[in-house]
Amino acid sequence: MIGLKEQTVRGAKTFAELRAKHKWNIPSDYNVAIDCLDRHTALRDKVALLYEDDEGHTARYTFAQMIEASNRFANALRGIGIGRGDVVAVHTPQRPETAIAHMALYRLGAIALPISKLFGPDAIQYRLDNSSAKAILMEPETVEKMDAVDRKSLPNFKHVIVAGRGRGGLAFDDLMSEGAPSFVMDKTSAEDPVLLMYTSGTTGNPKGVLHVARYVLGHNGIDYSYNYLRDGDLYYSPADWAWAGGLLDGLLAIWPYGIPVLAYRTKARFDPEVTFRLLEKYGASVGLYPPTALKVLREIKNPREKFRQLRLRCIVSGAEPVSPQLAKWVDEELQVEFNQGFGQTEANYFIGTCSTVEQARLEPLGKPYPGHDVAIVSPEGRVLKTGETGEIAIRRDSPVVMREYWKNPAAMSDKFKGEWCMTGDLGHMDDEGYVYFQGRNDDVIKSSGYRIGPSEIEAKIMEHSSVASCAVIGVPDPQRGQAIKAFIKLLPGFSPSDQLIKEIQTHVKTRLAAHEAPREFEFLDEFPSTVTGKIMRRELRAREEAKRRAS
Fold first, then answer.
1. What angle do CA 512, 514, 519 make, to 5 degrees?
2. What tens digit of pLDDT does each residue of 132-148 get?
3. Hey, what CATH topology would domain 4-429 get?
4. Which of 97, 214, 252, 493 counts the highest number of beta carbons within 10 A?
5. CA dihedral defined by 347, 351, 353, 358, rounded to 10 degrees?
6. Domain spanning 450-550 has what CATH number?
């Protein structure tokens, strides 16, 4: 069949050659479940999914078993009235039921709505209401959240399905036993809506991002970013499957290559010791690790000595830029091939690196992957010249670009300017085609007439040996308009001090410029963050404003 695997160019020696040889091949009848599972007729007995949880439970599914399981659940869903175009929420973390549900929904022609396990009743209520969802899949441990959801205000909502044999709704295992092992699929299209994902929301309520089946086909950057997936690889990432970076980069765009996936469910916070143990135990070789996760992993000293059986060969980081210091740790301590990937919920994974083709630079995000046309544009959608700062944008005809904002035409007019899909991220492009990130539109600091992006300053702060994580914002200053304030989380063994502050200030002044050095500091134990692990600068700004009003 023609699927995601066929969208990659192999054997080229440069990005220019990759782009020259690339040609999208989008089958009109494309279906995600067929690409992920059914295409692997020669791999039916190969393990597709390995599972472990923090209570010691384990499971494994071959591709054949996953096909049968998703067929059974698709039949069961059809039996309770779920059909083509219906929205079903998936409020479960990394576990077999989550993967089975997604595959079943794509077979049905229904729309999957991932909801992070971190969300509470109000967030669930909003998403169920806004999406007109008919059902939700939950865990036994979280089903009580529905007690606080006003079901009467959800006229389309019918069913709570509980993973395993859990109570509080329809038991997943019972539905599976009732569903037939073969499923008759209706005609499908590459333009069928399959996925509805809600943004974190920088302002106002979260926006529903609707993707069609071809969205998966646009993720050819996955293959490039792992320096080409190969036989023997095993994928693991701690990224939540309710996030585009976890679900697409870690499941839907991995299975088409016949690569097995490891899922791990935990009730605890991300633990570097547990992660390294899992990687060593199962022999995972590739995975996505956002900068937030890398910073935590860095707390383990000499990982290759402590975990001598590690088989990691290549990792990717994304969601925000990776500081050179963090990349250096990956190279020298973790000792793996390293690439970056860039995208967002509305258009995922369209810029990055492939170090087996071109030696990756640390400062830029990378280059546009083959088939994805990227430019730096003005607020009006005008393409800017090389080196000029503007908004990073991707041409709207890329298969990875969303269909629409769900029930929100006003937001569509802001998101698209002519032929360009605007990311909201500021940056510039050099004469070699590398794209540099300079910060969010709403994160820009205006100080003494300068427009300052926080990303570069944060990268320099991260170079200090004491810093685990940091974020920079602008705060009111009577002389400068805004001054730069740094929020810092220190690594274990370090404590705040005037000397430490002076060292960081001097380093930023020396490496960047005096006007970019933070004038105020605050040390935190934890940062406010989105469900994807991104530090919420807007929350830091809100706290700062409230504090200053109170004083």
1. 110
2. 999 999 999 999 999 99
3. Rossmann fold (3.40.50)
4. 252
5. 140
6. 3.30.300.30
Question: For position 203, what pLDDT does the model report?
Answer: 44
CB 253 within 8 A of CB 216: yes
| Residue 29, φ and ψ in degrees, nearest 5 | -105, 25
Ordered strands of the 87-90 beta sheet = 170-171, 159-162, 135-138, 87-90, 111-114, 193-198, 208-212, 404-405
Gap between the Cα atoms of 261 and 280, Å rounded: 14
Question: What SS3 class is residue 451?
Answer: strand
Q: What are the residues facing 437 on neighbouring strands?
A: 427
Q: In the numeric block, which tokens belong to residue 191?
A: 């333009």
> So what's the pLDDT on residue 513?
76
Helix axis angle, 63-79 to 96-108, nearest 10°: 60
Q: What is the pLDDT of residue 202?
A: 39
Edge-first strand listing for the sheet containing 314-317 = 286-288, 314-317, 337-344, 347-352, 367-368
Single-letter amino acid, residue 301: K
Query: Residue 541 corresponds to which tokens in the numbers above?
Result: 């700004």
Amino acid occupying residue 331: D
Residue ranges of the chain with per-residue pLDDT less than 70: 200-204, 319-321, 449, 451, 531-532
CB 163 within 8 Å of CB 137: yes
Sign of the CA dihedral with 260 first, then 265, 266, and 270 last: positive
How far is residue 389's CA from residue 391's CA, in Å, rounded to a whole number?
7
Q: Given this chain, do its domains 4-429 and 450-550 carry the same CATH topology?
A: no
519-546 pLDDT, tens digit each:
999 999 999 887 667 788 889 998 998 9
Q: Which two tokens stand for residue 528?
A: 């406010």
| Residue type, position 128, single letter | L
- The pairing of strands 193-198 and 208-212 is antiparallel
Domain spans, the chain = 4-429, 450-550
